[in-house]
Amino acid sequence: MQLELIRTYYPEGTNGKILLNGRLMVYSIELPWKENLAGVSCIPEGKYELVKRWSPKFDRHLLLMNVPQRKYILIHPANDAMHELKGCIAPVWLITGAGKGLRSRMALEILTSLVYGALDLHEQVFLIIKSDPYEFS
Asked: Helical H runs in 4-136?
């Protein structure tokens, strides 16, 4: 399975749409692009394998594999990128501003159900991250 994350970049944060076969699944928020600096930047565009991950803090969530110069880039709940993320991706149900959204836990549940289902069937799951070709800077 291949998911697409189509990003729009803003100085205060990065907003996105996570799609499956061109169909919107959830929105996403991330930190702004700051040259892939750990802890302050979203990750580079590219293709990343997704795997299951669990922690007491986030319960079930997702881990992106082989992110250049970064470790432990997760897809986990957050509603404010600047205050709750350090390079990870947060799914949200609704975008409320640059790097801000609502109902992240609900959006994560939708996304993890989809991805865990595919992984349980022994499918590889990839997230392809790219910029929105219709957005102009």
From this structure: 81-84, 104-120
| Residue 23 backbone dihedrals phi, psi, to 5 degrees | -100, 130
Domain residues for 111?
2-131
What CATH number is given to the structural domain containing 57? 2.40.440
Domain count, the chain: 1
3-state class (DSSP) for residue 119 = helix
Positions of E strands within the chain: 2-10, 13-20, 23-30, 46-55, 59-64, 73-75, 90-92, 94-97, 100-102, 125-131
- 93 in a structural domain: yes
Answer whether 0.85 is exceeded by the pTM.
Answer: yes
Give tens-digit pLDDT for 12-34: 999 999 999 999 999 999 999 99
For residue 55 the two structure tokens come to 């922690």
Closest CA to 1 of 120, 133, 132, 87: 120
